[in-house]
Design brief:
It is a single chain. The chain is an alpha/beta fold. It has 2 domains: 203 residues, Metal-dependent hydrolases (TIM Barrel), CATH 3.20.20.140; 58 residues, DNA polymerase, domain 1 (Orthogonal Bundle). Helices cover 38% and strands 13% of the residues. The chain is built from 11 helices and 8 strands. The longest helix is centred in the middle third of the chain and has 14 residues. 47% of the residues are buried. The protein binds adenosine monophosphate (AMP) and manganese (II) ion (3 copies). One manganese (II) ion binds next to loops.
């Protein structure tokens, strides 16, 4: 188990804002050379049993996964959980509570888009949501592409749905402490997802990692589809300085939208401790094909 294995520990299915099923993702991960996989739907573990079964069927080692939305110093931050017990009741109820405000928020987003002349966005977005409880900005983005308002989802997030732009609605997610505790108490390891994506000052970022570690967080996503090569290097150094294990994941959502394919990332820098080294006992090994 070293940093050279092709681990992809971050992607989304139709159960959150991806466009493929857990079974299609497992097959696609395998076809692209992944050997250790985790499905990390937003705020939802409802796809975990299917993902684990699909992984076993195509010969992938599997870690349970989730990507929890939290609010920290006024910004949305994502905490990935890996290797937890997906049946854990506290985690399940916590996630259910986190999902709770999404329908109301979606309605407010649609109302705000209507003010700039974009009609029918609630129903339009809902059409793309495989899981109604998980209606997200990604589903709105697909509707804005479908209706020709934008040419792709990247343009959507430049012009709409983000802070200060039409369709953005402030939302209060879980707390950092809750998210990390749910994951840890369910036997898993918490990871700060794509740290370069946040707009924190150096002091705020330091506070994020200090509090995260204080609550028992142990990992940082270093190699992710959301980071440039330079950002990977910056956060590799930071992971080492802070004594955090490193994770690797594409954040794949859709063949049509994602710039980074499953498994198609550089390896973790060798000096880092991969999260999967700490999660050895939590990996569900693919059955030996000879047996
Ligand atoms: P939500 O959980 O509803 O706030 O939606 C967040 C999701 O929107 C993320 O998980 C991404 O899939 C997508 N997203 C957010 N911001 C961007 C962005 N700037 N570029 C592309 N996708 C984004
Ligand atoms: Mn997403
Ligand atoms: Mn994320
Ligand atoms: Mn993600």
């Amino acid at each position: 188990m070293n940093s050279a294995i092709n681990a992809d520990l971050h992607c989304h299915s139709v159960i959150s804002d991806g466009t493929l099923t857990p079974e299609q993702l497992a097959q696609r991960a395998r076809d692209h050379g992944v050997t250790l996989w985790a499905l990390t739907d937003h705020d939802e573990v409802g796809g975990q049993a299917r993902a684990a079964a699909a992984a076993a069927a195509v010969g992938l080692d599997y870690l349970t996964g989730v990507e929890i939305s939290i609010t920290f110093l006024g910004q949305t931050v994502h905490i990935v959980g890996l290797g937890f017990d997906a049946e854990d009741a506290t985690l399940w109820h916590g996630l259910q509570r986190t999902r709770g405000g999404r329908a109301q928020r979606a309605q407010e987003m649609a109302d705000d888009l209507a003010r700039v002349g974009i009609k029918g966005a609630f129903e339009g977005a809902l059409k793309y949501a495989g899981n109604r409880d998980l209606i997200s900005r990604t589903h709105f983005a697909r509707y804005l592409v479908e209706t020709g308002v934008c040419k792709d989802t990247y343009e959507v997030f430049r012009k709409y749905l983000t802070e200060g732009k039409p369709g953005f609605v402030e939302h209060r997610w879980a707390s950092l402490k809750d998210a990390v505790s749910w994951i840890r108490d369910a036997g898993g390891l918490a990871v700060v997802a794509h740290p370069a994506r946040y707009k924190f000052s150096a002091n705020e970022e330091f506070a994020l990692f200090t509090e995260f570690k204080g609550h028992g967080g142990q990992g940082m996503e270093v190699v992710t589809g959301s980071h440039t090569v330079a950002e990977c290097a910056t956060y590799a150094d930071m992971a080492q300085e802070l004594g955090l294990a490193a994770s690797r994941g594409s954040d794949f959502h859709s063949p049509d939208e994602s710039r980074v394919e499953l498994g198609a990332l550089p390896p973790l820098p060798e000096q880092l401790t991969p999260v999967w080294q700490l999660l050895e006992a939590r990996i569900r090994r693919a059955p030996d094909p000879a047996e």
